[in-house]
Amino acid sequence: MKPIALSARPVLIVDDDTFSLMITSKALQKAGLKKILTCMDSRQAMEMVTHHQVGMVFLDLVMPHLGGEELLQTLSERYPEILVIILTATEAVDTAVRCIQAGAFNYLTKPIDFERLFTIVKNALALQELQQENQALRQSACSADLHRPEVFADIVTHSVKMLQIFRYVESIAGTAEPVLITGETGVGKDLFAQAIHSLSNRRGALVAVNVAGLDDIVFSDTLFGHSKGAFTGAERVRGGLIEQASSGTLFLDEIGDLTATSQSKLLRLLQGGDYFPLGSDVPKHSDARVISATHRNLWQLAQQEKFRQDLNFRLRTHHLHIPPLRERLDDLPLLIEHFLTEFTTRFEKPRLRASKALIKLLEGYSFPGNIRELRMIVFDAATRTPTNTLSPRLLEAHLNQASMSSAVATTPTNSNTPLGFNAHLPTLKQATDLLIQEALRRSNGNQTAAAKLLGISQQALSKRLKSRDG
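The structure corresponding to this sequence follows.
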């Protein structure tokens, strides 16, 4: 047998039989693997996997204390990247199928056929190498064709859509023209403003202000400053944020909420760079670059005469729209891992992982709060988990409550439709859970009454509740 490429990570054999353990170990050594660990007590296997960063596990099915199938389930949930090869003394097809469905890469029957062992190991290592290459490609995708990829380091993604935005940001960052950043709440518009400023190489600082809720006086004083005696209490001259942003960038967040009078003053600033501090008739000039952001539709506001059309055009000389999280769900595992790392580092906690079931559950969620909401969800679940793996149960209350408030709308009085939905439909499972939850609420927890409301038997409702909670 020609030795196969060495695995960079150790291989672990879990088997309570000393002879089988020795035979398997020698066979793997003959196949070319050198980093081989053995474990006779299945209860210690997970600790060894974590401590030694194991890449492949050979797992016996029949063991005392903790059976192989149970251990396989735990490995699949916590370490989906680890390839598990089942060792079994029986050739029962249903057992093999069940293990493959649970996440096993392959299986071997005892006594071990060394040629088959060699083939399985060779294929497993080839798959791991391919997975590593794909991961490297995904990680490098965001830096491909970028001159300064480090500027986007705080934006966790490998989305092609996001990469295209990165390229656009690099192309427009060096100009002095205004930039409008649009996107839903929580998508990270402020991070893109910071990236644009960093790439612009402007000497001044990035000065940010949220203009939502500011009346005209407060807006003018905050941005333009005031002269001495401009109003009661103005005992000295005060420069505004525009002055602080000299030779830098002024970032105006929530620009869609600006009052009509303030819009006129901002338009004057954008057109010629001139502004008047409160109480002064002597104009000042600003060379600050203006970046604005909003979650609102400025075109629609302009049509409703709530936003100046000329200001809308002036703000969007350059425009980038950040897609919501539900349109780039490929980033979900990456973001969850990022937030778990942030949590464990900040609070000095043991390493945490998200189960496949949890990620699957989140893939069906619409994320109205986007990245910011995901971070909150992950931090909350990480705080409450009793183990080192986040399970779906930790999220169901939040997701059901969010889906109830955002997916099921109040039905108009003249409508014959029992339910109304907004743009984001709940999944079938979420809708079922919501109906059950509402039926139980209306029946004060009485399952028999709730079942009648739902048009099913009490036994069927009980089964659904057990399935949901199990």
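Residues 114-141 form the longest helix (28 residues).
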